Amino acid sequence: MTEQELGMLGEHLAQRYLKQNGYHIRAANYRYLKYELDVIAEKDNKLVVVEVKTRQTAEIGEPWRAVTRKKQRQIIVAADHYVQSRQLDIEVQFDIISIVHNSFRTDLEHIPDAFTT
Fold first, then answer.
1. Cα 20 to the chain's mean position, in Å?
2. Domains observed in the chain
3. What is the spatial distance between Cα 99 and Cα 108, in angstroms, rounded to a whole number?
4. In angstroms, rounded to a whole number, what is the distance separating the alpha carbons of residues 52 and 67?
């Protein structure tokens, strides 16, 4: 499985998980400039921006650890554009879904409110 295929699978698994847990998916792979938001969902009157990180192993650390402060700032910029361009008046929450997927197992960890603005 290529890195791109693994990423696409991870985003599919994340969306399925979110739907099963009562989230409404508003957008996927939303692009603004060179930034991308993996999933934009809504639940409990909150806009939930979800960064999905998928790896085949956790040997070098859990996938969520790859969401650096720089990456967080990029996500915030793109999310701000999404909200402003649609003139939304809604609280925004930033979550991470961290997935380890290989031939032995698939582990999904949802980290709500993973970083703050």
1. 16
2. 3-115 (3.40.1350.10)
3. 4
4. 9
Structural contact between residues 101 and 56, judged by C-beta atoms closer than 8 angstroms: yes
The pTM (predicted TM-score) of the whole model is 0.92
Half-sphere exposure in the Cβ direction for 40 (13 Å, CA): 20
Average pLDDT, the chain: 91
Instruction: Say which residues have a Cβ less than 8 Å from residue 94's Cβ, sequence separation at least 6.
Output: 48, 49, 50, 51, 72, 75, 76, 79, 113, 114, 115, 116, 117
CA 80 to chain centre: 15
Q: Which of 91, 81, 83, 86 is nearest to 112 (CA)?
A: 91
Q: What are phi and psi of 82, to 5 degrees?
A: -60, -50
Is the Cα torsion angle 25, 7, 68, 106 positive or negative in sign? positive
29-48 residue pLDDT tens? 999 999 999 999 999 999 99
